[in-house]
Amino acid sequence: MVGFIIGRGGEQITRIQLESGCKIQIAADSGGLMERPCSLTGTPESIEQAKRLLIQIVDRCRNGPGFHGEGEGGASVQEMLIPASKVGLVIGRGGDTIKQLQERAGVKMMMIQDGPMPTGADKPLRISGDPYKVQVKNTQEQMVQT
């Protein structure tokens, strides 16, 4: 969910900080855990406001309508690891391959590049959309057929 919280170009986290008056810092590394530490600095009121805004984003991504306001119904999000040597093949020239995969599978796909990753490390591919279509098994079958 870190990518959703930060937003494109940091827009989302900047908005949350301005609205709440709270400084938000998300750890660059999860230390191998599923979650990343997040530090909130400010008055008790601003921290509570920031928490509310963060929870709204997470709830919207997990349960809310569509993905970033697109589509209908509840969205599902899963990630699968792509070997670093294959990332270029999945994306394709000018993003053509990943666009075709998205159209064929009926999902949204985004290669996650946030945070420092060791050279050669597998990259997470975030797949979101209709829960049935997002199932990694179904999406992998679509990718293999391409």
Question: Could you explain how this protein is built, in words?
Answer:
This protein is of the alpha+beta class and 146 residues long. It has helices at 2-6, 11-20, 44-63, 87-91, 96-105, 131-134, 136-145; strands spanning 23-26, 38-41, 65-67, 70-74, 76-82, 108-111, 123-129. Strand 3 and strand 4 (70-74) form a beta hairpin. Helix 2 runs antiparallel to helix 3. The longest helix has 20 residues, at 44-63. The chain is elongated.
Search tags:
two-stranded antiparallel ribbon; Ribosomal Protein S8, Chain: A, domain 1; 146 residues; 7 strands; alpha+beta; 3-stranded antiparallel β-sheet; single chain; 2 domains
Gross morphology is elongated
In CATH, what is the class of the largest domain? Alpha Beta
Structure annotation, total helices: 7
Order of helices and strands: HHEEHEEEHHEEHH
**Largest sheet geometry:** 3 strands, antiparallel
What is the architecture of the largest domain at the second tier of CATH? 2-Layer Sandwich
Count of β-strands: 7
CATH homologous superfamily classification of the largest domain: K Homology domain, type 1
CA distance, first residue to last residue: 28 Å
- Count structural domains: 2
Helix content estimate: 40-55%
Instruction: Identify low-pLDDT runs.
Output: 64-73
Kindly report the spatial arrangement of strands forming the biggest sheet. 5-7-6
**What is the SS-derived class?**
alpha+beta
CATH topology of the largest domain: Ribosomal Protein S8, Chain: A, domain 1
- Taken as a percent bin, the fraction of beta residues is 15-25%
Overall pLDDT level: 76
**Rg value:** 17 Å
